[in-house]
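hiii, so i know i said id send this last week but things got crazy w the move. better late than never?? heres the sequnce for the chain we talked about at the cafe, plus the structure i predicted for it. fair warning i was half asleep when i ran it
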Amino acid sequence: MIWGQHTLRQRWQSSVHTFRISGRPDRRTVMTIAYWCVLVAVVLPYVFTVLAKYGGPGGYSNHHPRDSLDALKGWRKRAHGAQLNAFEAFAPFAAAVIIAQSTGADQSWVDRLAIAFIVFRVLHGVFYVVDKPAMRSLIWTLGFLCVLGIFALAAL
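okay and structure toks below
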């Protein structure tokens, strides 16, 4: 064997040591800011769910939770729309972050775009609830561009 070359078995054994079964994994596998943003994106729709359902007309029925949504009006109905949109935006964002992380994309840029995405999603929900459709659409577009940017980082 020439110096600097590794057999397939040596490469496999070195990669096994990267991810230990017990104890804290290697520092390369810790939660990054982008991964924390994925967690925030998981929770965000439920903030709008609480806004939509808590104290609404007729109260909230846990026996028939969908029926109470039909009675929503005004800002509560828009909060429900913000909730649905936040759920829809989650999957592409999470996929982009996971793919970028797994391809070794520039972490600082992935983190920046992930933070920007979260800020835009919060603003999107606020503009949705207060009925500012033009701002909501602009902010939605900026959030979507963040997702596309994260995918682009993975491709570079």
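btw The chain has a mean pLDDT of 82. thought thatd interest u
miss u guys!!
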